[in-house]
Amino acid sequence: MSFALHVPARIRPAFSGFAPLSVPNYRRFAGSNVLAMSATWMQRIAQDWLVLQLTHSVTAVGITTAAQFAPSILFGLHGGVVVDRFPRRRLLMVTQSLVGLVSVLLAVVALTGTATVWLVWAAAFAIGCVTVVDNPGRQVFVNELVGRRHLKNALNLNAAVFQLGAFMGPAVAGGLIGWVGGGWAFAINAAACCVTVLMLSRLDASQLQPVPRPQRRPHALREGLAFVLRTPAIRYSILMLAFLSVFTLTMPVLLAAFATQVFHLGASGYGLFNSVGALGAVAGALASTRLTHLRLRIVVLCGTGWAAALALAAFMPSVPTFCAALIVTGVGSQYFFQSGNPLVQLSTLPEVRGRVISVWVLVVLGGQGIGGPIMGGIVDALGARGGMLVAGGVPAVAGIVLSVLLARRGSLKLSVSTTRPRIAITER
C-alpha cells in the first residue's frame, strides 16, 4: 500500500523556523498567546496558593490539580469530536470567554476574602471541562492559520511560547502574590482571555484555510480511534509518548525530591530546577525549528534520547551539573514533541485531525495522572536518584525495543520533508 499527501505550494528550503510569523493571522495569534500562556501559568500558581492558604493541606492542592485534569481524562476524546465538527475560531472564542468568566469569579472571591476551597475546586473542574475543547482546538487551528507549508515551524513556535509562559508566569505570580495577593493573578488571566477573544475576532477570515467538516454520524469517535490504530506514524508515535508521559513527564515529583532530599535546597531549589528545565525547553523548541525532515525513527530516537538524558541526570553530583542535565532534558523533550506532534498532524486527514490530536492530548494528560502516584511510590521506595533513574530508564529501554522492532520489521518507511513539495508515507 502506498499513498502520498501533496502540499499545494512549493516549500522553501530550510532555516525558515520563524517563517510562520510572516503570516499576519499567525503573528496576531502568537502575540496573544505569549500573554495568554503567561497568564494561564500565573492563574495556576495563584489557584494552588489560594487552596494552600484556605486549607494548609498539600493534599488539597493535589485535589485541585486532579479536578482540573480529570475532565481531559474523562471527556478528552469527545473534545476532539467537537473540534472536528464546529468552526475552530468560534470554538476558541467561546472557550476563552468561558475561562475569562471563571477567572473573574475567582478574582472577586479572592480579593473580597470570600473564597472557599469547594468553590476553587469547582472552578478548576469547570476550566478543565473547557480545556477539553480548547486544547485540541488551539493546536489544530494553527493549520488553518498557516496551512501545511508552515505547519511544523508554527507548532514549534507555539511550543516555545508555551514554555516561555511556563518560565515567566510562575515567576511573575510569585512576586504578585507576595506584593498584592493572588487575586490579581486571576484578574490578569481574565484580561488575557479578553485580549485573546478580541484577537480572534480581528483575524482576516479571507486568509484562513478552513478544513472540510465531517458529517454528523454516530460513530465519529470510533472513526478517529480507528484512524490512529491503522496509521503507523501515529500509532508508534503515541506508543512512545505513552511511556514518556507515565514516567518522564512526572518531573515535579522528581524535582521536589531532589530539592529536598538530595541537595537540601527547599522551595528555592524546587523553583530553580523548574525554571532551568523550562529554559532548556524554550531553547529546544526554538532549536527544533531547524528539523527539515520528520521521520518516525527520528521521533523514537528523540524520545529515547530525552529519557536517557533524564536517567543520566540521576547521577549528577552537584547542583550545577544537575542543572546542566536538566537543560539537556528540556531540550530533548522539545525535540521529541516537535518531531512527534507535527508528524502526527501531517499524517492525519484534515477531517479527523481534531479527534487524532485529542488522543495525543489524552495520552499526555492521562499518562501524567497515572504516573504521578506511581513515581511518588517509587521515589519513596528507592529515593530521589533511584526514582529519576527509573523515570528515564524505562522509556529509554522501551524506545530501544521499539527501534529494534521497527528495524526488524523493515516494511515501514515514513518520511515527511519540510523542504520538498511532497510528503510520502509508504507501507509495503
From TrEMBL:
CDD domains: MFS_MefA_like
Membrane topology value: Multi-pass membrane protein
Location(s) in or outside the cell: Cell membrane
GO terms for cellular component: plasma membrane
InterPro entries: MFS_trans_sf, TM_effector
Coarse class of the protein's main subcellular location: membrane
A Pfam cross-reference name: MFS_3
Coiled coil residues, start to end: none
Ranges that cross the membrane: 91-109, 154-177, 238-263, 269-287, 294-313, 319-337, 357-376, 388-407
Record carries keyword Repressor: no
Keywords attached to this entry: Cell membrane, Membrane, Transmembrane, Transmembrane helix, Transport
Gene3D superfamilies in the cross-refs: MFS general substrate transporter like domains
PANTHER family found in the cross-reference section: INTEGRAL MEMBRANE EFFLUX PROTEIN-RELATED (PTHR23513), STAPHYLOFERRIN A TRANSPORTER (PTHR23513:SF11)
Protein name: Putative MFS family arabinose efflux permease
